[in-house]
Write a structure and sequence with these properties.
The protein is of the alpha+beta class. Helix content is 32%, strand content 26%.
Length: 174
């Protein structure tokens, strides 16, 4: 058999088995029970229990394999009942104009870009992380300013020059 090692990666860990007869051959085995937290940033970690994954059949062309294999992933995340997110982040997520967020506060992400279920799962997690990071960014308050005297003069000069050009192009009926 082989020895088992932990391989830590952002957003979880994987068990790595290195075979004793050949170190060059590495096999990866994905274990759902080992990934505890999805790291969003240095403050926010989402527990796996808050995220639901469902394997569904993928849409689009792909031959007979599409009808047999459930390779697409449907990710569901309940924003309102999440203990990992602060109330401020929840409110900003709800104000995002994104069609994937329902009125009840459920975020639905469907990942079907790849033929591999694991790659689609990672893609869905990546998109969830990107959406939460987008909600974390605070917009700067706009400072109201007035146009300068020079910019007003330049605008009026350009406007009168343009009017002069249009006047020259006009058909004159004598």
């Amino acid at each position: 058999m082989g020895m088992l090692y932990w391989l830590y990666k952002p957003g979880g860990c994987r068990m790595q088995r290195i075979l004793t007869h050949s170190v060059a051959r590495v096999r990866f085995g994905s274990f759902n029970g080992l990934t505890d937290l999805l790291k969003i940033d240095h403050e926010i970690n989402i527990a796996d229990s808050e995220i639901e994954f469902h394997a569904i059949r993928s849409q689009g062309p792909g031959g007979q394999n599409v009808n047999k294999v459930a390779s697409a992933i449907h990710l569901r995340f309940d924003i309102n009942n999440s203990a990992s997110l602060s109330d401020e982040v929840k409110a900003r997520l709800m104000t995002l104009r994104d069609r994937r967020i329902t009125a009840d506060g459920i975020l639905n992400i469907k990942a079907q870009r790849s033929r591999s279920q694991e790659k689609n799962r990672l893609d869905a997690i990546k998109r969830l992380r990107a959406l939460i990071l987008k909600a974390l960014v605070r917009e700067k308050a706009r400072r109201k300013t007035r146009p300068s005297k020079r910019s007003k003069e330049k605008r009026l000069a350009d406007k009168s020059k343009r009017a002069w050009v249009k006047r020259l192009r006009r058909n004159r009926e004598d």
